[in-house]
Amino acid sequence: MLAQADPPTVIRVIRNAQRSGNIGYAEAKDAITVLGATSVTGPSETWSFEMLDSFASMEDLDRALSMMSTGVPYSDDVLPPARTLIALYRANLSHRWDEAAKIIPKARYFLVSIYRIRPGAQTSFADLVKMRTSRFESINFDQPEIAYQIMSGMPSGTFLFITPLVSLATFDDGLAKTPDGIKEIAAEQKLAAEVEIGHESFLFRIDPSRSYVSDEFASADPEFWSSRPKNE
Fold first, then answer.
1. CB neighbours of 79 closer than 8 A, spacing ≥ 6?
2. In a 10 Å sphere around its CB, with 0-12 CB exposed, 13-18 middle and 19+ buried, how is residue 14 labelled?
3. CA dihedral sign, ordered 196, 198, 201, 202
């Protein structure tokens, strides 16, 4: 089981998935953190975020579980049809990753931002991310996020950023602190136009009944996690 202070090294995101024979994580008795979530914005979907410490742990999980995914009813240029995504943690693109990892057990929402960039634009994309995080720091807006690069399941040059949110009031705080018309935003937009093919953001609500977490993880808010499947 991952330490709460560490971001998952590997995540597997399963969209609209079902376990064959209704076999669940709890029945498999596998030491894993899985956060199930339902979409608040965008298409009506359910996502499962499997949080893993290595590719080897993914292999171990697959030995215990048989995966069967349903079709996905939505696609576009940024988020094409995809059943399962595998992504690797990118520390250099993450912002206050240690704080983000600590927030996850208390999170009620995930803001998931997906970026697809032009071939050869990784260095410029890193510059774009730094510009954005510097702006957040300049206005003291606390929005830690964990960055991942998609390794399989989507086109190359796709990155996924997860921002755990304890409350949607975080957005109110950000709006209150962001001045209108600052030059940094214009510069970001210019660079984004050069670097990005496109990007989208989706808001998800964490669903304890679709999640599988340890007692230690759930201790951050036992009442919230009381409906989760348990390893009996």
1. 114, 154, 200
2. buried
3. negative
Coil/strand/helix, residue 82: coil
The whole-angstrom separation of Cα 212 and Cα 217 is: 10
**E strand or H helix at 68, and its extent?**
strand 67-69
Structure tokens at 180: 């209108």
Phi, psi of 77 (to 5 degrees): -65, -30
Joined together, the tokens standing for residue 76 give 């576009």
CA end-to-end distance (rounded Å), the chain: 17
Q: Rounded distance, CA 35 to CA 13, Å?
A: 10
Q: pLDDT (tens digit, 9 = 90+) per residue, 68-110? A: 444 444 455 555 454 789 999 999 999 988 889 889 999 999 9
Q: Is the pTM for the entire model greater than 0.70? A: yes
Cα separation, 168 vs 72, whole angstroms: 27
H or E stretch covering 110: strand 109-117
Sequence-distant (≥ 6) Cβ neighbours of residue 191 within 8 angstroms: 124, 127, 128, 131
